[in-house]
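User: Hi! I have a protein structure encoded as tokens and I'd like to know what sequence might fold into it. I'm fairly new to this, so please keep things simple.
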């Protein structure tokens, strides 16, 4: 039995860490304070940095991004029959695009992306555009794409990338609805 090939080469993993993690993470670090911040109850000084709820959200989001990425690779490589290098190129574009969309969802663990001023952090917008530009440059620039083990993608690949980002956003928004209901129920119980 043959095992599933690895969705990314070593150089692609390094490239992903450079372009998708650092710029958005740095820009999220200077996220302006939300107008709802002062309405929240103060945290207990005994509470750790990550709460039980925070760990569940982190696990859910990680599993979601992994599932979308691996499903995209399996679709491209096994179902559509693309070559390994093409499937890796598509999967890379999918993963980075989902991560960049996720950066905007990460502005709040409870608030919907559509209730926030998602253009309020200009550095995040710039970092996202910068990172996505590097994705496109890496995939389409001759010699650069050879060095990074990429091949140019077609229009259908980008349609699938957009679809993956939409699925990701819907699932994150659904989880935020559940979190808001949980927080409201907990605040009602504590108010009794």
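Assistant: Happy to help. Inverse folding works backwards from shape to sequence: for each of the 192 positions I chose a residue that suits the local structure. Here it is:
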């Amino acid at each position: 039995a043959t095992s599933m090939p690895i969705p990314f080469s070593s150089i692609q993993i390094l490239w992903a860490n450079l372009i998708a993690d650092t710029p958005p993470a740095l820009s999220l670090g200077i996220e302006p304070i939300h107008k709802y911040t002062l309405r929240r109850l103060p945290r207990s000084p005994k509470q750790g940095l990550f709460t039980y709820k925070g760990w569940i959200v982190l696990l859910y989001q990680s599993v979601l991004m992994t599932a979308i990425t691996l499903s995209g690779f399996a679709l491209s490589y096994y179902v559509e029959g693309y070559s390994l290098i093409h499937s890796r190129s598509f999967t890379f574009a999918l993963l980075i695009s989902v991560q960049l969309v996720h950066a905007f969802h990460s502005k709040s663990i409870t608030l919907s992306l559509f209730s926030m001023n998602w253009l309020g952090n200009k550095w995040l917008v710039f970092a996202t555009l910068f990172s996505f530009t590097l994705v496109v440059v890496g995939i389409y620039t001759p010699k650069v794409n050879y060095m990074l083990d990429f091949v140019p993608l077609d229009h259908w690949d980008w349609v699938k990338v957009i679809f993956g980002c939409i699925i990701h956003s819907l699932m994150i928004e659904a989880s935020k609805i559940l979190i808001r209901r949980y927080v409201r129920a907990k605040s009602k119980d504590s108010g009794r």
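A useful reference point when you look it over: The two ends are 60 Å apart (CA to CA). Feel free to ask if any position seems puzzling.
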